[in-house]
Amino acid sequence: MTEYETSCLGKTRFLTRQDARRRARQIRREGGPHFRSYPCRFCDLFHVGNLPGHASHLRTTPHGVYHLKDLNP
Ligand SMILES: [Zn+2]
């Protein structure tokens, strides 16, 4: 796995750090892992996550995720 694959590819992208932090708090409230938000140097947006390779939770949340393409059709 490259750093790009573990820290960016397939992860939810947030336009602002505030959005990413809000999502991280929501996941935590739902009993998920304690994610943190971080700026991505590959796409220049923000993601939430913890350790590389542990991002699968983001794709399986019952409340879904939103992607950049949804915000900018
Ligand atoms: Zn990224």
Walk me through the structure:
This protein has 73 residues and is α+β, with helices and mostly antiparallel strands. The chain has one domain (3-71). It is built from three helices and two strands; from the N terminus they run ααββα. The chain has helices at residues 3-7, 17-29, 68-71, and strands spanning 36-39, 46-49. A two-stranded antiparallel sheet has the order 1-2. The longest helix has 13 residues, at 17-29. The chain is globular and about 30 Å long. Residues 52-58 and 66-73 have low confidence and may be disordered. Residues 8, 40, 42-43, 45, 47 line the site of zinc ion. Zinc ion binds at residues 8, 40, 42-43, 45, 47.
Short description:
This protein has one domain (3-71).
Biggest sheet strand line-up? 1-2
Helix share bin: 25-40%
Taking all Cα atoms into account, the compactness measure Rg is 11 Å
Proportion of strand residues: 5-15%
What is the number of strand segments? 2
Give start-end ranges of low-pLDDT stretches: 52-58, 66-73
Structurally, the number of domains stands at 1
Biggest beta sheet summary: 2 strands, antiparallel
Shape: globular
Number of alpha- plus pi-helical segments: 3
SSE pattern, N- to C-terminal: HHEEH
Ions and ligands: zinc ion
Termini distance?
30 Å
Strand-pairing-aware structural class: alpha+beta
Give the overall pLDDT as a whole number. Answer: 79
